[in-house]
UniProtKB/TrEMBL annotation:
Homodimer. A motif ('KMSKS' region) lies at residues 242-246. The keyword Transmembrane helix does not apply. This is Tyrosine--tRNA ligase. One of its GO terms (cellular component) is cytosol. It is an enzyme of class 6 (ligase). It catalyses: tRNA(Tyr) + L-tyrosine + ATP = L-tyrosyl-tRNA(Tyr) + AMP + diphosphate + H(+). The gene is tyrS. Its EC number is 6.1.1.1. ATP binds at K245. Transmembrane segments: none annotated. Catalyzes the attachment of tyrosine to tRNA(Tyr) in a two-step reaction: tyrosine is first activated by ATP to form Tyr-AMP and then transferred to the acceptor end of tRNA(Tyr).
Amino acid sequence: MNQAVVTKSFAVTQDVREAMAVTLRGCEELLPQDDWLQKLARSAHTGVPLRIKLGLDPTAPDIHLGHTVVLNKMRQLQDLGHQVIFLIGDFTSMIGDPSGRNTTRPPLTAEQIKSNAETYYRQASLVLDPARTEIRYNSEWCDALGARGMIQLASRYTVARMMERDDFHRRFTDGRSISVHEFLYPLMQGYDSVALKSDLELGGTDQKFNLLMGRHLQQEWGQEPQCVLTMPLLEGLDGVEKMSKSKGNYIGVTEEPNTMFAKVMSISDDLMWRWWPLLSFRSEAEIARLRGEVEGGRNPRDAKVLLAREITARFHGAGAADAAEHDFVNRSRGGVPEQIPEVTLAGAPILVGQLLKQSGLAPSTSEANRLIDGGGVRIDQGLVSDKALKLPSGTYVVQVGKRKFARVTIG
């Protein structure tokens, strides 16, 4: 094994301690803390920014608030003057990240990866400063490795160490299959750190094994090993499962402002206080003061409105956040939003289930009937309970749930 570069010791100033506090805010784990403190001190002394890496595989076309937990941390470190690297894992996406999986993850096609990657950086730039962000694709160096390079890379780690990984160990113990190519994923992610000479890599808590692999391989290549910072996995709207589009408990960063605001307002009071330090850019002192006011009798709804406004304004602007708050208050009082889709249908009279489907308020008539049975459909603010209801010619305000509206004209 090559020896990693040993850095000299630098004085830890007050500015360095403040930068360390920014790094630690909301994080789950920083390894090793002493090394990162010295990296910060060296950067402050030399004026050379640290290289901070975040890799995301474009496994879906959109980014949600769960992804922004690490993006927010990147922005905080970017604002301290460091170089952030937004790495799109176009090569590793073709392997499929096994982290937390009970089965082999289906690899994506090159076409799917290209399509998803087109939106990733644009959406990430709603958090990061694009003028100060280095964007890279790991196919740049992974493709160049070739078969010989891949075999040499695989020789730098043992199967025994690989099987210490929790998800691999569980699957092996339970008799579930592990494909050989899955062993390549953490190796390739670790090699990204070698190629980029990163000083710090960020990820969710489920990425710890992969992040530590980067440290190991950098030492193998004679580089100073990166530090590792893990952020908590953001719980979704249900307050139970991690935020995920597949679970339907997510808020997409490009969702309409009214929807985004209302979704934040729908979370529980307990979940709100777990979201505040991870999604807000307010200082920890401000958040602590706000929580103290709520514990002292202030309505927790006030704190939730502030969080909803901040998140909505970040992605849509202050004006849209103002309008979204007004819309939310109006709906909570039983009112109809000022701007709702206009739909024109032909063929009166129309069965209510067909109306919901044709106006885009339900994906199918069976789902429309389920919504009616559940008491989730209103027409002109009146609750609909009869699935056999037929609507004659006219214009109706149709509401499904709390957030879906349409003004439907039947001809």
